[in-house]
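Deviation from plan, reported transparently: pyridoxal-5'-phosphate complex.
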Amino acid sequence: MKNKDKVTIRLNANENPYGCSADVLKAIKKNIKNVHLYPAIPIRLEQKLADKFGVDQKNIVIGAGSVRLIDGIIQTFVEPDEEIIIFERSFIAYEQLAAAHRRKYIFAEQTNFVCDLENVLPLITKKTKVIFISNPNNPTGTIITHIQLEKALKKIPKKVLVVIDEAYCEYVTDKSFPDSLSLQKKYPNLVILRTFSKIYGLAGLRIGYAIIEESLANIMKTGRIPFFFNSLSEDAALAALADEGFVEKCAEKNSKEREYLYQHLKQIGMNVIPSQGNFIYIVFKNDIEKEAVYKKLSDAGIVIANMKIFGQDKSLRIGIGNKKSIKKIMYCLTSKD
Ligand SMILES: Cc1ncc(COP(=O)(O)O)c(C=O)c1O
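Because the crystal trials were delayed, the predicted structure below was used instead.
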């Protein structure tokens, strides 16, 4: 096969392999002629999200991707002498953005690849301002449960913001996953982050949102840059929310393919961590074994995440692609050449 004919399969950024809803594309086409106009504040989207979650519009803060909201939370709420707690082996943006704002961050250890909140509690001091938890956790795919989250919230001081980043929540099939909206009613220091980048398939448009107590929302909104949102995104997001069937189908296919990939990787002797996300984390005995698997897949045009770039040794993260790409992965890993 000539190099130019080689198809690249992108499974390194936890994107949706099924694209986005056709209705989203229609909405974008309809609005494309207006790109010369400045965008308005996306109040229709705020209201739609508020209705969906049974909260007030004042509790919704929209941002250009949830990373922009993570950035905003650090920038707005963490003073120079305060500290942030994050987990080892978690979403890299928390530490990158804390470092960008020159804020001190402390790592909590995981227990069996789970963001164990029991390990956070002894790290909390008077200086602690924000705790970031990715749930499901990127890259390990593990979750903390409702009971575990509530147990920790009872003990965490109210002035500490507990940010639960649920970028992958629509993929979760485990019933013990937190009902974070109900917990937020009891614990207003719980901040929920969600995104349109994953199951909705709109990563390139940059749309994320926070569900957050009103006074905190107001502070975040005041600190926003003007024209923080692009003019194609609001209608695209509204169309995405309206097409619930697309989301359901993607979730269904993801859980089927996730189970298939997990079982097959296990069968060939890999140490795979059970995942609730749209990706799977594999831990190797050493970096040599890991690099061999990485190379084999990348030589076949399958791009996966080598966790070395995130400072994590001996591990790879594979996005759950469609059936065809998963078959191709298994073929590559089991063929002798
Ligand atoms: C846990 C987590 N949160 C947030 C994001 C980024 O989301 P967004 O595209 O909305 O900035 C990612 C992306 O990989 C992620 O893994």
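The radius of gyration is 20 Å. We consider this an acceptable substitute for the interim report.
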